[in-house]
């Protein structure tokens, strides 16, 4: 899934802003289906930006809006159910919004991302363990890319999604596969996109 990345001379690690690459970024969730298996769904990051410095992880920042009507369960009927009022409630709340509060580096390439997730009009704190995979310059697009993988388990009831608890698990595993493209205008572009969006935001 990751493109071939090549480090070119003169590209030293530094602090910088990145915009999310929608092609190579995914929010994938797994939830128990009555003990038979984990149902798998996918959501799209609609917009966002992050700041990351390999030398100082504490200076990192992440802001992202996830399009809830993008939910893909592999079946159109199930897409409508999961996007509906019992679960994501995408019509009333088109986006889930995440804003980080801090980042803790726990190893050479591992850390924990702390932040606030607003979903269905409720805001709760979450902690997301992650791995920093790579930062390099790629000839596919001629830009610098930073990649990360994260995995956490969330309780959907915290955001008011208690429906069908007997057959649909309340503990939801969330996998993040993230690539960002270096862009010094990423934060300003995000603010402009939010300002120009007439839909209700978190």
Q: What does the model show?
A:
- With about 200 residues, this protein is mainly beta.
- The protein has one domain (about 15-195): Lipid/polyisoprenoid-binding, YceI-like (Lipocalin, Beta Barrel).
- The chain is built from two helices and nine strands.
- Strands 1, 2, 3, 4, 5, 6, 7, 8 and 9 form a nine-stranded antiparallel β-sheet that branches.
- The longest helix has 10 residues, at about 185-195.
- The protein starts with 15 loop residues before the first strand and ends in a 7-residue tail after the last helix.
- Residues about 1-15 have low confidence and may be disordered.
In short:
This protein is mainly beta and 202 residues long. The chain has two helices and nine strands, in the order ββββαβββββα. Strands 1, 2, 3, 4, 5, 6, 7, 8 and 9 form a nine-stranded antiparallel sheet that branches.
Architecture blueprint of SSEs:
Blueprint: E1 16-20, E2 26-33, E3 37-52, E4 61-72, H1 76-83, E5 95-105, E6 110-119, E7 122-138, E8 143-155, E9 168-182, H2 186-195
Structural class: mainly beta
Uncertain parts: 1-13
* Amount of beta strand: over 45%
- Following the backbone from N to C, one meets helices and strands in this order, namely EEEEHEEEEEH
**Total separate domains:** 1
Oligomer: single chain
Sheet with the most strands?
9 strands, antiparallel
Please name the CATH architecture.
Answer: Beta Barrel
Task: Measure the end-to-end span.
Answer: 31 Å
Classify the fold: give the CATH topology: Lipocalin
DSSP helical segment count: 2
């Amino acid at each position: 899934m990751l493109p071939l990345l090549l480090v070119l001379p003169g590209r030293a690690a530094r602090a910088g802003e990145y915009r999310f690459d929608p092609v190579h970024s995914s929010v994938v969730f797994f939830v128990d289906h009555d003990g038979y298996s984990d149902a798998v769904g996918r959501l799209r990051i609609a917009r966002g930006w992050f700041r990351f410095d390999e030398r100082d992880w504490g200076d990192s920042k992440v802001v992202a809006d996830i399009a809830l009507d993008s939910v893909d369960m592999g079946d159109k009927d199930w897409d409508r159910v999961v996007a509906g009022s019992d679960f994501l409630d995408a019509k009333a709340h088109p986006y889930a919004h995440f804003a980080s509060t801090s980042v803790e580096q726990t190893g050479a390439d591992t850390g924990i991302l702390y932040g606030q997730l607003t979903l269905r009009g409720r805001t709760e704190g979450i902690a997301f363990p992650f791995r920093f995979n790579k930062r390099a310059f790629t000839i596919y697009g001629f830009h610098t890319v930073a990649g990360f993988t994260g995995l956490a388990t969330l309780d959907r009831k915290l955001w008011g999604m208690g429906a069908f608890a007997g057959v649909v698990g309340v503990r939801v595993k969330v996998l993040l596969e993230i690539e960002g493209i270096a862009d010094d205008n990423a934060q300003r572009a995000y603010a402009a996109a939010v300002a120009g969006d007439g839909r209700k935001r978190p």
